[in-house]
From TrEMBL:
Record keywords: ATP-binding, DNA-binding, Helicase, Hydrolase, Iron, Iron-sulfur, Isomerase, Metal-binding, Nucleotide-binding
Ranges of residues in domain Helicase ATP-binding: 176-435
GO MF term set: helicase activity
InterPro entries per the UniProt record, alphabetical: ATP-dep_Helicase_C (IPR006555), DinG/Rad3-like (IPR045028), Helic_SF1/SF2_ATP-bd_DinG/Rad3 (IPR014013), P-loop_NTPase (IPR027417), PDDEXK-like_dom_sf (IPR011604), RAD3-like_helicase_DEAD (IPR010614)
Keyword Membrane: no
Family, similarity comment: Belongs to the helicase family. DinG subfamily.
Keyword Lipid biosynthesis: no
Pfam families, A to Z: DEAD_2, Helicase_C_2
The protein's name in its UniProt record: Rad3-related DNA helicase
C-alpha cells in the first residue's frame, strides 16, 4: 500500500513519541473532569478579553494529518497555553508526564505558528491547583523553525507506525466487508437480531434486544456489528460483559469469526483485572519497586510491535509477550487498548466513572460501538459503580494506626458518625442531605489525607485505600440529587468511639463528643437511577446494543439507564415450539413470608409428585437460604426417596462445580438453589442434564425501610404502578432461572411457578409471551 493516509490527534502523537522511562503509577491526587473545567474557567477569567480558547488546529506532514484543540492563545502577548488542573505541588508530577505535557504544547505551538505565520511564540505550561485555583506557570520562548523541526521529527518517528496502522485498517475493513457467517445460515431469530443490530449501527442509534436462550445471541450481535465496522468507519467495538462467563462465549465467537475471515487481520484484546494480571502483587507500580515497571516506556515499542502482529491478544498472549520484553502484562494490555479493533471486558471499562475504554474513546475521539451481554444486570452493576458506604467501624479501624497528623480529623469524623447514630430514633434513617457537621468533618478528613499522600507518595496500603473511599464518597455527595438516596443505618455491632478519656474540645473549638461504646453506624450514598451518570456514556458512543433474555418492559432499562428516547426495541421470538416447555402455576400455593410454614407440606408434595411423574434432574429456586433449607429438610422428611442436593451459603469454585456435576445425562434428583444466585443464570445444562425448574418465589426484594425509600423514589420519578422497584426486577430473575430448562431447540421440559400470584394479570404481562400458562 503506497498511497496511505492516517489521521492522529496531537495527544496520541505525543503519547507515542514522548513517553520515556519508568512506569510510575504512584498515587498523586488528581482533579476530576469538572475540576478541570473549573480550572480552565479560572484561567480564562484572568486573561485579556481577546483570549482565544479551544483553538482547532491541524497540519499535514507527508501522509500524516495531525489535529487537535489548543487550550488557549493570548494574541496581544503572543502566548500559547496548555492548561492542566492538578492537586498538590507541581514537583510531584512525574518527570515523564511533565515531558509529555511539554511535547503537546510544543506540537500545538508548531501548528499555530504555521497557521498564523508566527516567527516565534511564547509557550506557557499552566498548572492550576484544583482547590485554590492558583496558577504555576512554566514559560519558554521558542522560534517557529525550532517548533517545526521538533514537530517534523515527531511525525517521522510516528510515520512508520502510522503507515502500518493505515494498512491494517484497510486490510481489516476488506476482511470485514467479505466476512461470511461462520456457521452457514443464520437461524431465524438470530437473523432478526442481527438485522436489528446492523440497522442501529448504520443509523447511529441504540438498541434494546430481548432475545431468548438458544438463538445464538453472541454471534448474532458480533457478526452484524463487525460487518458495519467498515461502512460506519468504527474505530473500536467493545463487547462488554456483566459476568465473567460471558467473556468466554465472546472469545469463542470472535475466534470463529477470525477463522473464516480472509486474512485474520482483526485485532482482539481481552481486558483483565489488575489483580489477575499483576506479576508482583506485593510491589508498588513504579520503577524503583517493580522490575516490570522499570524502563517500561523504553521497552514498550518492541512489545507493542509484537503484540499487534500477534493480533489475538487474550490474557495468555499478553502475558507471554509482556514477560518476553520485561514489561508489566496489565499495563501492556492498557496500552494495547489504543490499537485493538475489538475489546472484550467487563462493563466497568465502559460505564464506571474511571472506565478506561470510555475515557480513552473520549480523549482520542474514537467512534465506538458497544455490545452489552446479559444486560439485565447492568442496572444493578451501574448502581454499585455510583454508590458508596462509610462505616464508623471503618473510620475507627483506620484511626487505630493513623499517623498523628491525621488523628484529629479522623476522630472528629468518627465522633460525628457516632453522634448521629446515637441521636437517630430508628435503625434506618433516610437523609435529605448530609448534616453540615458531618459534611465538614468529611471534608477535613479529605484535606488531611490529601496533604498526607502528597507528602508521602510512596505510601500504599490501607491508608491509601481509605483515602479512595472517602474521596469517592465526597465526589458522590458533590453530585447528590434525586437519582440517589442518602441514609444512615445503625447495626447491632458495637464500636469504641474514641480512646477514653479523649475530649474533642481539647482539639477543636466545638462541642465534645461522648466516648465509650456505641452501635456501629453506616453512612451510604445509594444510586437508584444510574441513568443520571450513564446518559453521557450513551451520548458519547456511536451505537450501543444491550441484549439479554430478560430486558422488558423496554421503558424499564431505557429510563433507568438514561438511554435516548429513540432507542430501538426488539423482542426476538423464541426458537422453541411452545409445546416444548410446559409452564404451570400452583394456584393454591402462597410463598409469601407469612404463609410459608402453612404451605410447606403442599409445596414439597408438589415437587415430589412432578418428580415421580416425570423423573429427571430439576432445579428448585427459593428466595433465601433459610427458605431453601427448610424446604429441603421437609422434602427429605416427607419424601426420602427423592435424591436432593443444595447450594451452600459460601461456595467456592470447587463446590459450585461439584453442585453442577450432579446434573448428569439421564440423572434423577433435585438441586436446591437461591433465585438470583450462582445457579439462576449463566448455567448451561442441555438435554436431560436438566428437565425442569420449580420457582418458589416471585423474586421480590424483602420488605424493609430502605426498600420503601427505593419504591417511593422510583414512583416519584417515573410514576406509580410501574413495578420498577420490585415486580419487574423480580420477574426478570424468575425468567432467567426458568431459562435454564430449554437450552436447545430439541430440549423439552417443565417450569412450575409455585405461587398463586403468578395468575395475576400484571404478573403474567411480565412473563414471556410464548409461555402457555
Amino acid at each position: 500500500m503506497s498511497d496511505w493516509h492516517y489521521s492522529v490527534s496531537v495527544r496520541s502523537l505525543c503519547e507515542f513519541t514522548a513517553k520515556r522511562g519508568d512506569l510510575d503509577r504512584r498515587f498523586t491526587p488528581s482533579a476530576t473532569a469538572l475540576e478541570g473545567q473549573a480550572g480552565q474557567l479560572a484561567v480564562l477569567a484572568r486573561r485579556s478579553p481577546g483570549y482565544e480558547i479551544e483553538l482547532p488546529l491541524e497540519a499535514v506532514h507527508g501522509n500524516l494529518r495531525v489535529r487537535g484543540r489548543a487550550d488557549g492563545y493570548e494574541a496581544d502577548v503572543n502566548r500559547l497555553e496548555e492548561i492542566k488542573t492538578i492537586r498538590g505541588p507541581v514537583d510531584l508530577i512525574p518527570e515523564n508526564r511533565r515531558a509529555l505535557h511539554w511535547a503537546q504544547l510544543e506540537t500545538y505551538g508548531a501548528l499555530i505558528a504555521t497557521d498564523r505565520g508566527l516567527a516565534e511564540l511564547e509557550l506557557a505550561l499552566v498548572y492550576v491547583d484544583a482547590d485554590t485555583q492558583n496558577e504555576t506557570v512554566l514559560r519558554e520562548k521558542v522560534a517557529a523553525p525550532a517548533l517545526q523541526a521538533a514537530f517534523e521529527a515527531r511525525c517521522r518517528q510516528f510515520e512508520a507506525w502510522a503507515q502500518q496502522e493505515a494498512e491494517h485498517r484497510v486490510a481489516r475493513d476488506a476482511d470485514l466487508n467479505a466476512l461470511p457467517f461462520p456457521k452457514g445460515d443464520l437461524r431465524p431469530g438470530q437473523r432478526l437480531l442481527a438485522e436489528a443490530v446492523y440497522r442501529v449501527a448504520a443509523n447511529g442509534r441504540h438498541l434494546l434486544a430481548q432475545a431468548p436462550t438458544g438463538i445464538g445471541k453472541t454471534l448474532g450481535t458480533l457478526y452484524p456489528l463487525l460487518r458495519a465496522m467498515p461502512t460506519q468507519q468504527l474505530d473500536k467495538i467493545g463487547y462488554m460483559t456483566c459476568k465473567g462467563t460471558g467473556r468466554i462465549a465472546a472469545l469463542e465467537a470472535l475466534d470463529a469469526l477470525r477463522e473464516v475471515s480472509p486474512s485474520k487481520s482483526l485485532r482482539v484484546l481481552t481486558l483483565v483485572a489488575k489483580e489477575q494480571a499483576c506479576e508482583h502483587p506485593t510491589q508498588a507500580c513504579h520503577g524503583e519497586a517493580c522490575p516490570l515497571a522499570n524502563g517500561f516506556y523504553d521497552k514498550l515499542p518492541a512489545a507493542r510491535a509484537e503484540a499487534v502482529q500477534q493480533a489475538w491478544l487474550d490474557p495468555t498472549a499478553q502475558r507471554r509477550i509482556a514477560l518476553k520484553h520485561d514489561v508489566c502484562p496489565y499495563y501492556l494490555g492498557q496500552e494495547l487498548l489504543r490499537w485493538a479493533d475489538v475489546v472484550v471486558g467487563d462493563v466497568h471499562h465502559a460505564f464506571d466513572p474511571y472506565g478506561q475504554l470510555y475515557g480513552l474513546a473520549q480523549s482520542q475521539d474514537w467512534k465506538l460501538a458497544l455490545l452489552v451481554d446479559e444486560a439485565h444486570n447492568l442496572i444493578d452493576r451501574a448502581r454499585d459503580m455510583y454508590s458508596i458506604s462509610l462505616s464508623l467501624a471503618r473510620v475507627r479501624e483506620v484511626l487505630a494506626s493513623a499517623p498523628v497528623s491525621l488523628r484529629a480529623s479522623l476522630r472528629r469524623l468518627a465522633g460525628e458518625l457516632a453522634r448521629l447514630g446515637t441521636e437517630q430514633v430508628e435503625d434506618y434513617q433516610p437523609l435529605k442531605q448530609v448534616p453540615d457537621a458531618l459534611a465538614e468533618a468529611l471534608q477535613r478528613v479529605n484535606v488531611a489525607l490529601g496533604d498526607h499522600v502528597q507528602k508521602h507518595p510512596l505510601e500504599v496500603g490501607a491508608l491509601l485505600e481509605f483515602y479512595f473511599e472517602v474521596l469517592g464518597l465526597q465526589r458522590l455527595l458533590d453530585r447528590f440529587d434525586t437519582h440517589s438516596l442518602c441514609d444512615l443505618q445503625r447495626s447491632a455491632g458495637r464500636v469504641v468511639v474514641a480512646d477514653a478519656p479523649l475530649n474533642l474540645s481539647l482539639l477543636e473549638d466545638d462541642e465534645p463528643v461522648d466516648t465509650g461504646e456505641v452501635r456501629d453506624v453506616v453512612l451510604s450514598v445509594r444510586n437508584i437511577v444510574p441513568g443520571a451518570f450513564l446518559k453521557e456514556r450513551f451520548e458519547g458512543c456511536h451505537s450501543v446494543t444491550l441484549f439479554s433474555a430478560t430486558l422488558g418492559p423496554p421503558d424499564y432499562p431505557r429510563q433507568l439507564l438514561g438511554m435516548p428516547e429513540d432507542t430501538a426495541w426488539i423482542d426476538v421470538p423464541a426458537p422453541f415450539p411452545p409445546e416444548h416447555l410446559t409452564v404451570q402455576v400452583a394456584h393454591r400455593l402462597s410463598t409469601r413470608y407469612e404463609h410459608r410454614e402453612a404451605s410447606m407440606d403442599a409445596l414439597v408434595d408438589l415437587l415430589a409428585a412432578q418428580f415421580n411423574e416425570h423423573p429427571g434432574n430439576y432445579l428448585a429456586f427459593f428466595s433465601s437460604f433459610d427458605y431453601l433449607d427448610k424446604a429441603a429438610a421437609r422434602l427429605a422428611q416427607r419424601h426420602p426417596q427423592v435424591v436432593q442436593w443444595s447450594q451452600g451459603r459460601a461456595m467456592g469454585d470447587g463446590a459450585r462445580r461439584a453442585f453442577l456435576d450432579r446434573f448428569v445425562e439421564g440423572g434423577r434428583g433435585i438441586g436446591f438453589a437461591v433465585l438470583g444466585g450462582a445457579f439462576a443464570e449463566g448455567v448451561d445444562l442441555p438435554g436431560t442434564r436438566l428437565i425442569g425448574a420449580f420457582i418458589a418465589t416471585l423474586g421480590l426484594p424483602p420488605v424493609s425501610p430502605l426498600q420503601d425509600q427505593v419504591r417511593e423514589r422510583l414512583d416519584a420519578l417515573f410514576g406509580a404502578d410501574h413495578g420498577y422497584a420490585d415486580l419487574v426486577p423480580g420477574l426478570q430473575k424468575v425468567v432467567q432461572a426458568a431459562g435454564r430448562v430449554l437450552r436447545s431447540v430439541d430440549d423439552r421440559g417443565w417450569v412450575w411457578l409455585l405461587d398463586k400470584r403468578y395468575a395475576r394479570p400484571e404478573v403474567r404481562a411480565l412473563l414471556p409471551a410464548w409461555w402457555q400458562l
